[in-house]
Structure formats: structure tokens, C-alpha cells
Amino acid sequence: MLDLNRRPRMGLLLISPERFANIGEGTARGSYKERKEAEAAWMLRDTSTIADVTFTGIVWTRADVQRAIDAFVAAKVDYVLAIFLSWAEDFAWIRFLRDMPECPVLFCHRMRDKIELSDTHDDDEFAEYLCCGGLVGSLEASGSIKRFDRKMMATFAGTWAQVMERAAQFGNAARARALLRQSTFGLLACMNEVMWSTYVDTYKLFSQIGPELRFLSVAELEETTNAVTEEEARRTMERIASQYEVLPNVDRDKFLASVRASMGMERLAAKYDLDLLVLNDIDTVLFKHIGLRPGFWPTSPDVKTMVVPEGDIGSGVAFAILRLLSGQHVNYIEPFHVDLPSGTFDAGHAGPNDYTDPRGKCKISSDVRFAKTKWKYAGAPFAWYVFPEGRKTMLHCSQQTGSFQLVATQVEATHTDHFLATYSHSHFRPVGEDCTALFSKLLAQGVTQHYAITDGNFTGAVRDLAMMLGVEFEEV
């Protein structure tokens, strides 16, 4: 199981020229080397607030750059933040570009908030002039960046505060990339045969995105569900019932069955150490053997596996990405219809949906969509949830060409009361455009109906991650 709480791992590469080291010795502000070592000290201190930093000291020599590479590899850094502290010889930077194994690299030029130089005939002032020459080195380094054309390479220029902000976003994306490559997804039990546009190449999923895919059976789910004792399920049901309003249409025996099946699903996922389970919750085999679709994920705060419905692996990728980038609650939606007078669209989804964010509104309701079916627990209840209000990132992932695509947009969840029976839902308003423009762009892009949402704006980090994964990205 992934450690979702671990910090990004940064390798800090600071480059300076050995030939400048002794210039300014004995002056008021010390030698060039002393000034740069002081600069490196506060850079290390500041970057340590956003990542676990591996730093072997300023790179002055060929031996220094090799020592840095070896340390970065040993620490399994998620990314490298590289900065020229002034002009420097090319040998160190070119060796890094040539010899550092494939890894996200953010090359930044730090602009000083102000430059105060007087007469550089003075040794102290001349040393300071050399210390301020980072733009020279950065521009020279950019030529080698172009020549080597490494994958997962980005550049940035700004003040130190801006560099820190950019490095934090880039590092968040790099961490997500590393965790995706360590993750395991499960498919229970098949892709959805009525939604072919959601199909993906599972080999490409592993080679391009990262997760290993395990294939699970309904028979295994039936075993783990039957192994949940009635006493365990009843305790969990009563705890859930004590936290949320239970509507009069809820049958207690079916409530118990739904909680028990949800616990069985979670235990099956734990058995295979899954980080995310893609559940085909409208599969007739599931209904024949389980009698319902599990409606109470997660049944406990201890449950770590993420769950998405309708056998859509691509939407599982979007869900996992937002969870890794945000560390927050993530929900699952499909847009239903546009209300032109209010400028909003209604969206949500049936089936498992995280209902545990206390800022949302949850009731326990009968699943009326299946209430009149022939299945054993027809109408079994689920957590009927209204998503919290506020600005959100809405993210889509699918594979409509040879590559995966990530499509991101910003929406605002507005005030909503429970009204769409069977669906966890909300009203949404696009940010910066109207519904006609948004859905026209999505139709032209070629997507599917499934999206993940989470609080805040993570579009920049998604863009960085798409670059690192080598997938298509579109902001709409």
C-alpha cells in the first residue's frame, strides 16, 4: 500500500565555478566561495520546508557532480531542482545531463529581489558582481538543455519565492509520478461492456502511467463478503446509522447486506494490497452472486484503498492522480444536464462515492434505480451524498488515441440540497466560461462521461505530471 503521507523527495543541485572561489578573500563580505556557501545554506533550509532534500554540497568539480548523482540515485529522489548560483563552467552541468538517470528535473534561474552594486573596482563589490551573475550561467545552461533534450525537463525564472512555489508544484507532480509507478490497481471483474469508449490498453497503463493491474473475480468478492460476520457488519451499520440520517425507505436487512458487501470489497482490496479498486458495479454477475452493488465505501477511516465504479480504469487514474496531488477527499461524477438559466450543470454518480467529508451532506437512502429489479437485495441502500461547495479541479483520463490523455478544468460546486435520487450529486458552475463553451470543448476533445473532482486548483500540477508521464494534456 502506498504511503500517501510521504513528502516529495528532492535532489538539490547548486552549481558554481571553482575558478571564482577565492575572489574577494579578506573583504567585508568574504570570498565568493564563502558567500555562495551561505547562499546554499539558506536555500537548503528553505527547500527543506517543501521536500525531503538530498544535498551533497555545492558542485564545484567533476567529482562533486558525480557525488551528487550517486546521492540522488541512492535516495530515490522524485525530482531534481537545479540552479546555477552564478556563471559556471559547462562540464558539471553537461555531465549531470548525460549521466543522471531518467528523472524529472526543474532548472530554475533565481532573480534577486534587488541588485545593489556600486564601483566594481572595489574587490568586495567585484566579488558581489560575480555572485549576481546567475543569468549568464542560466542562459548558457539552457543551450545544453536544448541539445540533450531530456524527458521530464522543465525550466523556470523568477524570484526565490516564485522558484519555491514552482518547485513545490513540480515536486508534488514528481511525487505523484513516483507513487503511481509503485501502485497496484485491481479490476473487479471486467471493463464495462456497454461503455466501450472507457476501455484502455492495460499494458500501456503499466508502461506509461505506472500501476500494475490485478484482475479479481466476483467469486473472490463473495468469499470475502461471506467471511464478514453479521456482528461485524451490524456494528459498522449502526455506527454509520448514528452518523447520518436514515431515510424511511431504507430496509434494515438490505442496509446490513450493503454494509457487509462493502466491507467484503474493502477486505478483498486489502488482501491484494490494492491502492485503487475499479469496480464494475453494474455487472449482472455481481448482482447474481452478491445481490447488490456495495454502497458504503469507505466503511471506516482505516480503509486506504480508493474505489471507482463502472469498470472505468481511466477514471481510476484520474481519481488516483487527484488523491495523490491533493491528499484530500476525491469524488466521482458524470455531468447529467445543463441548466441554462442558472448557468450550471448537474453532475454526480451512482455507486460507491466517498461520503465522509463532513463539509458535505449525507443521508442513507434506498437505491431506487434498482429497487424494482429481481436481485436479492433490490433497492439496497447507499450513502446518498451532496458534494461540499467550493472551487474544484475536475479531471478526466481516458485513452482515445495511442496515448492516455488528461483533461482538466475548474468548476465551482454551488449550494445544493438532496434532490437526485440514487445519485451522489451537486450543482456545478464552470469557472471562467459558460456551460456551452465548456461542453463544446469537451465534445471536441473526445472524452468520456467520467470525471474526478477535488477541492482547489491542481491544474498546474496535473500539467507537470502529464509532461512527466508523456501523456496528452488539455486544459478546458
Which descriptors apply to this entry?
alpha/beta, Rossmann fold, L-fucose Isomerase, Chain A, domain 3, 2 domains, six-stranded antiparallel barrel
Task: Characterise the protein shown here.
There is one protein chain. This protein is of the alpha/beta class and 476 residues long. Strand 9, helix 11 and strand 10 form a beta-alpha-beta unit. The chain starts with 8 loop residues before the first strand and ends with a strand. The protein is built from 14 helices and 19 strands. Helix 3 packs parallel to helix 5 and helix 8 packs across helix 10.
Task: Break the fold down into its secondary structure elements and pairings.
Elements: E1 9-15, H1 32-47, E2 52-54, H2 62-75, E3 79-84, H3 90-99, E4 105-111, H4 123-131, H5 134-148, E5 153-159, H6 160-182, E6 184-188, H7 202-209, E7 212-216, H8 218-227, H9 230-243, E8 245-246, H10 252-271, E9 276-279, H11 284-290, E10 306-308, H12 313-326, E11 331-339, E12 344-349, E13 361-366, E14 381-386, E15 390-398, E16 405-414, E17 424-430, H13 435-445, E18 451-455, H14 459-469, E19 472-475
Helix pairs in contact: 2-3, 3-5, 6-12, 6-14, 8-10, 8-11, 9-10
